[in-house]
Specification:
CATH architecture of the largest domain: 3-Layer(aba) Sandwich
Distance between the termini: 45 Å
Strand content: 15-25%
CATH class of the largest domain: Alpha Beta
Oligomer: single chain
CATH topology of the largest domain: Rossmann fold
Structural class: alpha+beta
Radius of gyration: 44 Å
Largest sheet: 7 strands, parallel
Helix content: 10-25%
Number of strands: 26
Length: 647
């Protein structure tokens, strides 16, 4: 199977091309005259002058005859003759309806003011002749490579469009539809699947109701099928010619693509006697049949032509559905399709069959526009906003049992459907400004939307943490917020004498315990990798865990020196190993930090990430010990930095 099908589509053109002017006039000779006698008609005198009598009248003493100019001159001299005048031609000046349109009962439906008004129909074809007096094109687009113009340079699309929507000298099935020309076939009648897919995208974007595809080919395309399925699921009905490759006996399956797809209505062709056209494709995909033999419609240069083919049958069905769509605006595309099946004359076996599908289409003469009572908008739309959560509430203004559902929109995009018995919607959402709307959908499919409601979701300021209750803790001191935060995270604790000792120097053991707690690391089995840290040591588990994660290291003599005071340089190294720090300001250079110092790079990173700072004299003092308060500040800042950089 090819993933990209560039095979050309062959137009489902006709098997026979017969051309005939719209107004057909009898050929008139100069000798075709009306002879009006003064009294009685005298046949013999006309024949004596070589005339051929064509007809006689009873209302007046007159007849029609063919005469030579010389004979006319001689007869005008006779006293019995009142006048001799040319049998002048008169022309019909009213619109005409082709047999196919009449066969579907469309004219009877027009009398009910059902003409396709408000229905958007796209004809995907060779374009439409925008200068034809019988066609009004609302817009369109070109999807062929050689032109951006959707005007027809072939004629096929114009013929299809006329059957569907002509509204002038000739009247099509649905003369008041909004007609769009999507040029997907070139001046030879050829095109690509890719062009149809782009035209389907255009149709969805422009909210087209119906698409006519009077074309076909033998090649299956998964991409084309997927695009058609998407358009169908968006509410568009797609109608296509079944194809002109049918066999005389109709026993073979010959339906072409795209008509052969499940979500396309495949149309076969019939003649005036409701007989299948011998060229009409057959198969179980055939859904309905429609007039497709010697169909008169619009063509290029303001002309009209007779053409046959399933290409001509398809727009009859598209027009039928356009009338039905106007009359039943409350139903879905799938429901319209089912209604179409019931509006047919069964042919063939009397049930759905491979020749005619459900049968030849025929509109019910009593089809009228169903009045839909417009629902009222939801009122008193309000929102309760808490931390990252929105609760919408509203009141219905129609009987609650008539509500099928409410559709929730956020910033113009549908986000949820709420069943009709509920008038509340809750969602969690990131902080920001949002505009909500609520649409009521009633049981008869009427829809109306509320006034928009704009709200702002903000992250509330956290409640201040209660300061630890230790006798030596000063809640006004610089270290208070850091130690308070870590205390409530169970990272730091106090001593048995009810002190927390902020100003005491912190040992390597205690710093390691706080680090492991802050990172929430799972304890590691004590391997006693350090000779001076026995399994009974209060920090043994934390030291082994941190060492296993390569956050800390001992000395060359295999000791850890847990009771030794940790230095500022060592803290910088440990923090860079433990957190993903990113610079937020330019790095600092310190006079007492040599490039050869093992922690120089770490000191540069923690200071540029604003985790630690140097002193006013330009030094960092890497060998200086660290108080419990200072280590708490470093650790709390690193945790906040990690949270902001990697939420």
């Amino acid at each position: 199977m090819k993933t990209y099908n560039s095979y050309r589509l062959l137009l489902a053109l006709t098997l026979a091309f017969l051309f005939l002017p719209l107004a057909s006039h009898a050929t008139v000779e100069e000798t075709h005259v009306i002879i009006h006698f003064n009294d009685a008609i005298d046949d013999e005198v006309v024949m004596e002058h070589g005339g051929t009598i064509l007809d006689t009248f009873t209302l007046i003493p007159a007849l029609t005859a063919s005469l030579t100019p010389e004979s006319i001159i001689e007869l005008e001299k006779l006293e019995a003759i009142h006048t001799i005048e040319e049998d002048a031609i008169v022309e019909v000046n009213q619109a005409s309806v082709d047999w196919g349109v009449a066969k579907t009962n469309a004219p009877a439906v027009w009398d009910n003011e059902v003409t396709g008004e408000g229905v958007k129909v796209a004809v995907m074809d060779t374009g439409i002749a925008t200068d034809h007096p019988d066609l009004e094109v609302a817009g369109g687009a070109s999807f062929v490579s050689y032109t951006g113009d959707y005007d027809d340079d072939h004629g096929h699309g114009t013929h299809v469009a006329g059957i569907l929507a002509a509204n002038g000298q000739l009247i099509g099935m649905a003369p008041d539809v909004e007609l769009y020309a999507l040029k997907v076939l070139d001046d030879k009648g050829n095109g690509f699947h890719s062009g149809i897919i782009r035209a389907l995208e255009w149709s969805v974007e422009h909210e087209v109701d119906l698409i006519n595809l009077s074309m076909g080919g033998a090649d299956y395309s998964s991409a084309l099928e997927a695009a058609i399925d998407h358009a169908y699921n968006e509410g568009i009905l797609i109608i296509a010619a079944a194809g002109n490759s049918g066999t005389a006996n109709g026993e073979d399956t010959t339906t072409e693509y795209p008509a052969n797809f499940d979500n396309v209505i495949a149309v076969a062709a019939t003649d005036k006697d409701d007989q299948r056209a011998d060229f009409s494709a057959t198969g179980d995909a055939v859904e309905v049949a429609a007039p497709g033999v010697r169909v008169q419609s619009t063509h290029l240069n303001g002309d009209y032509k007779l053409i046959s083919g399933t290409s001509m049958a398809a727009p009859h069905v598209t027009g039928h559905l356009a009338l039905l769509k106007q009359a039943r605006a409350d139903v879905t595309n799938k429901e319209l399709r089912e209604l179409l099946h019931t509006q047919t004359i069964q042919l063939g076996t009397g049930e759905r069959n491979n020749l005619y599908g459900y049968g030849r289409i025929e509109l019910p003469t009593d089809l009228t526009v169903k009045e839909i009572k417009e629902p009222l908008v939801p009122v008193e739309l309000s929102a309760d906003v808490t931390a990252e959560k929105v609760t919408l509430n509203w009141l219905p203004t129609i009987d609650q049992e008539k509500v099928e559902a409410y559709i929730i929109y956020r910033d113009g995009k549908r986000v949820a459907k709420v069943e009709g018995e509920h008038t509340t919607y809750i969602e969690e959402i990131e902080p920001g400004t949002y505009t909500y709307e609520v649409k009521t959908v009633t049981v008869d499919h009427g829809e109306v939307i509320s006034e928009p409601l704009t709200i702002e979701v903000v992250t509330p300021e956290p409640e201040p943490l209660e300061a630890p209750d230790f006798i030596d803790f000063n809640e006004r001191a610089w270290y208070a917020p850091y130690m308070t935060a870590l205390y409530h995270q169970d990272v730091i604790g106090g001593f048995e004498d009810e002190t927390i000792r902020p100003n005491n120097e912190i040992t390597r053991a205690d710093a390691t315990i706080m680090l492991v707690r802050a990172l929430e690391l799972n304890p590691t089995v004590n391997e006693q990798r350090f000779t001076d840290v026995s399994s009974a040591h209060y920090a043994a588990s934390a030291i082994e865990t941190a060492a296993a994660h390569e956050l800390i290291a001992g000395y060359s003599d295999q000791t850890f020196q847990p009771s030794a005071e940790i230095t500022r340089g060592e803290v910088a190294v440990i923090l860079t190993r433990s957190f993903s720090l990113s610079p937020v300001e330019a790095p600092q250079r310190f006079t007492d930090v040599e490039a050869t110092y093992f922690g120089s790079a770490a000191i540069e990173l923690v200071t540029s990430a604003t985790i630690a700072t140097g002193y006013p004299d330009g030094m960092f003092q890497p060998q200086a010990s660290v108080s419990r308060a200072e280590f708490s500040a470093f650790l709390a800042r690193a945790l906040e930095h990690e949270k902001s950089e990697h939420p």
